[in-house]
Specification:
By secondary structure, this protein is an all-alpha fold. Helix content is 79%, strand content 0%. The chain has 13 helices and no strands.
């Protein structure tokens, strides 16, 4: 039986407590605030823009998990897709722009800084942040979630649901850290290569969106039996994926422009001296 679609009021006002995600939000926000305060105590300033990015990531996470979006995401695929866009695209982008590793390196003690540097130089981090690996985790994960029984399992089993949330946030953050992150990652490709990697990832949203849109039956009939709602979800996924790509491309291009401007300024100073 197809469930009745929740209204906009249900999504906006139908809040419920999700303790696990709320604890993670509190811990992340508290740790970030401690780092900013430590820098201030040393007479150093942390970027307000980066703090705003972290605050935005936490706020979006709360909306995605505690509001009516979190309440109805296991009943309507279109609502689930809104939640996926928030957790898998918006949150990772804001997190990497908040530069949490840079904050740790600047505000932590000697042991903490040494541990983070060792971790960044470790083989697992080199593998996970390799552009091809990050690309496969991000795009391949989307295919597994929406084109296999994982989608139905996540709607019925809370622990699978939690793992899916964790995957979209972490894989999205890894992928975007390679493309637009400002933290010191090993082997980050130059801006031109990053733009190419982003363009190669575009087909994932298009192909999966088209597969959901053209399907003659629900992909997870036990959890999401409404085919019309699946088509709406497909359109949301496809459209927001394109917008997400344009937004990230704009950030890459801006970072590229900044790098070129700094290089020109260095050359001008060298000529003057």
């Amino acid at each position: 039986m197809v469930s009745v679609a929740p209204s906009a009021g249900d999504l906006a006002l139908g809040w419920q407590l999700d303790p696990a995600s709320l604890v993670l939000v509190g811990l992340a926000g508290g740790a970030y605030a401690v780092g900013v305060r430590r820098l201030a105590a040393r007479g150093r300033r942390w970027s307000r823009g980066r703090s705003a990015a972290l605050a935005g990531a936490l706020a979006v996470t709360v909306v995605a998990t505690q509001s009516g979006i979190g309440r109805y995401d296991t009943e309507r695929l279109s609502v689930h897709m809104v939640q996926h866009v928030l957790l898998g695209m918006a949150v990772p982008l804001l997190v990497v722009l908040a530069a949490p590793l840079t904050l740790v390196l600047q505000s932590g003690g000697p042991a903490t800084r040494s541990g983070v540097r060792r971790a960044l130089r470790s083989r697992p981090v080199h593998v996970l942040t390799h552009p091809i690996v990050a690309w496969c985790l991000f795009g391949g994960g989307l295919a597994v979630i929406y084109l296999t029984p994982v989608l139905g399992l996540a709607a019925r089993h809370p622990w699978v649901h939690l793992l899916v949330h964790a995957h979209v946030v972490v894989s999205g953050a890894l992928f975007l850290a390679v493309l637009v992150g400002v933290d010191p990652l090993p082997g980050r490709p130059p801006p031109g290569a990053r733009l190419l990697i982003l363009l190669v990832a575009v087909p994932f949203h298009a192909v999966i969106g088209l597969a959901l849109l053209s399907a003659g039956r629900p992909v997870a009939p036990a959890a999401y039996p409404d085919l019309a709602d699946q088509h709406l979800a497909a359109g949301l996924f496809w459209g927001t994926g394109e917008l997400f790509t344009f937004a990230v491309a704009a950030i890459v291009l801006r970072q590229w422009w900044v790098v070129e401007q700094r290089a020109m300024a260095r050359e001008d100073r060298a000529l003057v001296s």
